[in-house]
Structures are given as C-alpha cells and as structure tokens.
Specification:
Shape: globular
CATH class: Alpha Beta
CATH superfamily: Inosine monophosphate cyclohydrolase-like
Oligomer: single chain
Number of domains: 1
Structural class: mainly beta
CATH topology: Glutamine Phosphoribosylpyrophosphate, subunit 1, domain 1
Radius of gyration: 16 Å
Strand order of the largest sheet: 11-10-1-2-12-13
Number of helices: 5
Largest sheet: 6 strands, antiparallel
Distance between the termini: 37 Å
CATH architecture: 4-Layer Sandwich
Strand content: 35-45%
Helix content: 10-25%
C-alpha cells in the first residue's frame, strides 16, 4: 500500500466529513489517535469538542441555534480500562457498554448500522486502541450502506497488530463533497505519524478545509505508562 501524506490528502478533499486516525509515533513511544468533524449546515457547524472524563463529547457552541441533536451530539472518545474507543457517533457508547460486558469490538458493532440520514446514509466509522505492557494494537471499522441502498449494511473491520513506528491509518466518512455524499471506499489509508502532538494537531487543523472544519481532537498515549496528552482545537 502506498503511504500517503495526510496533510496533502486533507488539503485535496474539501469534505472528507468525519475522520479517524490511529497509529504509532515515529519514535515508537506513543499510540496516537486523532478525530475531526466537519459540517455543511449551520446545525452541524454549531459544535465544539469538550472534555468529558477521560474522553470528549460534542456540545452546541450556541445552544439557542441547536435545531436537531440527532446524530451530532455524542461522545466521540471514551476510555475503558486500557482501551480507547474513538467513533463518529453514539456507537461509542454501544462499544463501551458491550465490551464492558465481555463482547468484542466486532460483536458490539453488529448491533449497529450506518446513520439514518437519507439520502447520504453516512457510514459509522469506529476505532479502538488497546495498550498493554508497552505494546499496542488497534482496529478500525466502517458500517456502510450497499452503494447507497439502505436495505443492506456492509461491515468491514481492519485490525493492526504491532504497528510500525511512524505509521498509522486514516478512515473517513466521505470520499468528497457531493449530493448525496459519496461514502468512503476501500481500506483505511496508510499515512505517516510524527512525534510531536502540537505539530501534528496544528498541521492537521491547517490542512482541513477552512469553511467546513469544525473541531479536532488529538491524543498521544505513552506506551510505557499509559498516561496520555490530548489537544482540542475548535473553530468556534
């Protein structure tokens, strides 16, 4: 697989929608994840990320302008023991609750489908990171309609064991702008992951389309201690 420049990928796509990045820092010391949201409507753009426990949640920037919380207010990141869950919807809670009941990442997502936002039927993208004794592995999932037909749900899970230094994967909801929005296709894209959280966050934010970007979250998890450092950038 050809390794892509994540910043160029974002600059060349005005509307990737929501995106998840997971990988390992170049020096091999950190598990890294990032999650961003974009929006075309006033309701979608009227959001910020705020900390909630060890994770984050979306919140209306101006509550008076919130017209429909359905699909836009949720917890994108939650932590369950040594596992960090990152998703683009309320399936974060489904994964958390069912994995806490001894089900697997894949099993928990079998209870969910793509979003009910016809005609887009936005894919549900999810990721999970497990850090254990200085090592980690991760998986990514996408639940999508069958080429826009809501009668069938296609489910794909991609697992990555013993990730290589400086490499990660990027999955997002849309191939680009459109009407209806075209769902992501193929495997998560192979990308580079740097060592510095501030550099990574700032460059990701600068690469997102200025009109459509809403919020960005980046976390570096120290593989030896399990302690993490996070950064949130909100447009509002």
């Amino acid at each position: 697989m050809i390794k892509k420049d994540i910043y160029a990928e974002l600059k060349n796509n005005a509307y990737p929608g929501r995106g998840i990045i997971i990988g390992k820092s170049e020096n091999g010391k950190n598990a890294v994840t990032a999650y961003f949201i974009m929006g075309r409507s006033e309701n979608s753009r009227n959001r910020i990320f705020v900390e909630e426990g060890e994770g984050i949640k979306t919140q209306a920037f101006d509550p008076s302008k919130l017209t429909d919380p359905h699909l836009i207010i949720y917890s994108p990141v939650r932590v369950l023991g040594n596992k960090t869950i990152v998703t683009n919807g309320d399936q974060t809670d489904t994964i958390y609750e069912l994995m806490n009941s001894q089900q697997t990442f894949e099993q928990s997502l079998r209870t969910r489908e793509f979003e009910d936002d016809a005609p887009n039927f936005t894919p549900r993208i999810s990721g999970i990171i497990k850090v254990d004794d200085g090592k980690f592995n991760y998986a990514m999932s996408i639940l999508k309609s069958a080429n826009g037909n809501p009668d069938s749900c296609s489910r794909f899970t991609f697992s990555y064991n013993n990730p290589l230094n400086g490499e990660g994967h990027f999955i997002h909801t849309y191939m680009g702008d459109g009407n209806p929005l075209p769902s992501f296709e193929g495997e998560p894209e192979l990308i580079n992951i740097p060592d510095d959280i501030n550099e990574f966050a700032d460059k990701l934010w600068d690469s997102l389309n200025n009109e459509n970007k809403v919020s960005l979250f980046v976390r570096f998890i120290d593989l030896e201690t399990g302690k993490y450092t996070s950064k949130i950038i909100n447009k509002n």
